[in-house]
Amino acid sequence: MTDKRVHESKVFKVMMEGVERRGEKVREVIMDGTYDRGEVWREIERMGAKGVIKARRDEKEGGVLKGRDETIREMRDKGFCEWAKEKGYGRRNRVEATFSRLKEYLAIG
């Protein structure tokens, strides 16, 4: 967890490298649209993981980041609600709520 001065997307690669150093394999990453950034998608692809990240509205495929382009196509073709249901995007809300309570408990941020 970071405090309000640092967005997690800026330290995402370092966090994932720490997970890998412990011998863990990341299979799926679920994040909100603020993580729809090239550096995050590149790291997800490097790990061979599946990204479930809401693409920003009216985004266009770039032809470089396969997972992101796939997400953009699926969201455009299916609509956000169907895409979210299919991908289990709602799981993100439960995780965020847990971390919010933890931050309050620890008085972080």
The chain-level mean pLDDT equals: 86
- How many individual domains? 1
The largest β sheet comes out as: 2 strands, parallel
Q: Which structural class should the secondary elements be placed in? A: mainly alpha
Helix and strand pattern: HEHEHHH
Low-pLDDT stretches are none
How many individual helices?
Answer: 5
Per DSSP, what share of the residues sits in E-state strands of 2 or more residues? 5-15%
- Principal-axis shape equals globular
Short description:
The protein has 109 residues and is mostly helical. It is built from five helices and two strands.
What would your notes on this structure say?
The model has no long low-confidence stretch (mean pLDDT 86). This protein has one domain (8-57, 64-106). The protein has helices at residues 12-21, 38-47, 66-78, 80-87, 91-106, and strands at 28-31, 50-53. The longest helix is centred in the C-terminal third of the chain and has 16 residues, at 91-106. Helix 3 crosses helix 4 (80-87). The chain is globular and about 40 Å long. Helix 2 (38-47) links the parallel strand 1 (28-31) and strand 2. The protein is mainly alpha-helical and 109 residues long. The protein has a two-stranded parallel ribbon with strand order 1-2.
